Every structure is written in C-alpha cells, then in structure tokens.
Amino acid sequence: MFPAASPLDSALALESAFQAGLHRLLAQRRLAGYILCAANAAADPAVRAALGAALDEQGHHHARCFARDGCADAGEEDRTVFAGMLELGEAALAPTQVRHAGPFEVQFNRLRALRPPRVSRLAPDSLYRPFDPDGFHFNRPFMLEERFWEGDLGGRTVSLYYNKYPFARCHALLVPTREAGLPQYLDRETLVWVWEQVSQAATGLPDLLLTYNAFGACASVNHLHFHLLRRDTPLPAMVADTWPVAIRTFTAPEAAWDAIESLHAESIGYNLLLAPGRIWILPRRRQGSVPLPPWSTGFTWYEMAGGVVTTREADYAALTADAISSALATHHVPWPA
Questions:
Q1: Number of structural domains, the chain?
Q2: pLDDT bucket at 123, cuts 50 / 70 / 90
Q3: Phi/psi at 68 (nearest 5 deg)?
Q4: pLDDT higher than threshold 70 for residue 118
Q5: Which of 39, 162, 180, 238 is the most exposed place for a label (fewest CB within 10 A)?
Q6: In 208-218, which positions are buried (b, 16+ CB within 10 angstroms) versus exposed (e)?
Q7: Is 60 within a domain?
Q8: Helices in 136-209 by DSSP H: which ranges?
Q9: Residues 6 or more apart whose Cβ sits within 8 Å of residue 52
Q10: CA 298 from centre of chain
C-alpha cells in the first residue's frame, strides 16, 4: 500500500508519496477524503495543480449528495465541516493568503475555521494525561485511511498522516509507534530519535521542519505525534535576536532534554521546533490560562514561533505587529530557576 522508501529520503520522495496519497483518497469518493484534499489544495498551489479537475468533480459530487440526503453515510464531523464549505462557496477552495506584519507571518486560511478543536480547547492542570483508547486518536479505523506512508524510520515504525486542516507545505503528522498508544508526553529517547531523523534527512530535505505541541500547549490529539512540514524560509522566532517569550536554542538533544525535563518538573507548557542541527524550545502559559484575542484560533507552535492563522478576511487585513507581539507576550513564562 505504501512506498518502500522513506518519504524523508528526499524532497521528491516526500512530494510523490504526499500527492499519491491524495489521489488515492479522492478515488475513494468519501466526503472525509474530499475535505482533506480540498484543504491541502488550498494550502499548496502545487497540490491544487496536481489534483486538478478531479478535485472539482468530487466537490460537485458531494454537493449533490448533501442536497439529496445530507451525505448521510459520512461522519457527523465531516458533514458539519462540509456544510461550512458549502456556505463559503467558491471561497472554500481559494488559496491561503500570506503576508508579513513586521517580523511576523500572517495567513488567511478559511478552512482552518471549520477545524474541530478537540482537546486543544481544554484547560488542563498538567502536561500529562493518560492515553484514552476511547477518545480521538490515530489508531481509529477511519483515521488509518488518512495515512500516506507507514514504515521503519530509525528503528521505529512511523506513520505519516495528512494534516486535515493544514497551514504549511507538505503539512503532515508524524506518529511514532502509533499502535503503542503513547500519550502526547515527550521522553528523552523520543527526542534523541527525532533529532537523528531530522539530521539524517538534511541532505535530501534541507528545508524540513518538525514541530511539537506539548499537551496543554495546543496539541489537539493526546497521541504522541509531531508536525512535519517544509519551509522555504525560517519561522520568525528561528532568526530573531529577541522574542516576546523566553525561547532557548540548543545544538544537541541531550542539552535540550535537560531543559525539557525542567519544564516537565514545573508543569510548564512548551512548543518545540526541530531543524537540522538545532532545537528551539518555547516555554509558554498553558492553553486556557490566557484569554485569546478575537483574531486567534489558538496559540500552537506556529503562533509561538511568529506565524498567525486568521480565518476572517478583516482580521487578516487589519492585524498588526504590535497586536501579535502583545498576544505573544501574554504567554510568557520564565524558565525554572
């Protein structure tokens, strides 16, 4: 079902596996697959071009089904999202727009507004919550359809899932040893392992970036996973001299792990960025402890690193660097002594 070679071997391998999986999902003619493909097409012009008329035909097909019986064979979540897409009309497939406000990156992503929040809207009192086999997780049978690769990577079985509501190029979710049902709580061995995978991929994928939302730091699924994406340019926090939160950078996973352990000990939320040879750790106030500005859907690793997803055109046009900096500053928390 999946290519034998790892998609992290090269840019071509990743793009080929990514696009092949989208074509497979469209061929199944399921509403969930169409929504995923439409959102990825909006996020990346190359995906939109690759899917072409097949995507448009699927949209018309599901619109007819929705008019007939509400797409009764689809899941409730997908029916709700598709109803929102129909309300948006042609704008639902409009490309994501991106601009800069001072050092910050701002995007207008209509479909992200339709994304279910899941656990990212909870206000947890801890960074650890046991894995819930009855909750939402990547082992659910319907979720297995959203993988585009699974195989051995550095001695671990890894599953690569599409991000159903992406905001980056080749935006995927990397789930190590998914069948073990590990919660979203990082350990030293996993940090070292993921550092090694990013380092080994650097030759063929120099623009690869892996990121991590701790539980309580806007992770939407309590099942161990990383975000995987490609960036033509660094995120603002990766090149800034100063930042509104107490970011630290590391050039070795062991030193980074010592810092993460100190955050775990104090139950301080954090987000990670991992690029070849470098780890950025951004400690932050836990979700639910800081009121969100009306233009924000939540402060994930992307917002903490200087990118903002807006879902209303007026917010996209009006958002200023000062407003973003102030919102970031409310998430500041000092490093443990």
A1: 1
A2: confident
A3: -80, -50
A4: no
A5: 180
A6: bbbbbbbbbbb
A7: no
A8: 141-144, 188-201
A9: none
A10: 12
27's CB contacts (< 8 A; 6+ apart) are none
Instruction: Answer yes or no: are the C-beta atoms of 40 and 47 closer than 8 Å.
Output: yes
Q: How far is CA 134 from the centre of its chain?
A: 22
SS3 category, 151: strand
Share of the chain above pLDDT 70, in %: 99
Range of the domain at 198: 96-329
> What residues contact 23, with CB distance under 8 A and at least 6 apart?
50, 51, 54
237 secondary structure, DSSP code: H
Cβ pair 106, 310 in contact under 8 A: yes
Tens digits of per-residue pLDDT, 41-99? 999 999 999 999 999 999 999 999 999 999 999 999 999 999 999 999 988 889 999 99
- Kind and range of the H or E run holding 258: helix 253-266
Region for 66 from its dihedrals, namely left if φ exceeds 0, alpha if ψ lies in -120 to 50, beta otherwise? alpha
Cα 92 from Cα 102, distance rounded (Å):
28
pTM given for the model? 0.95
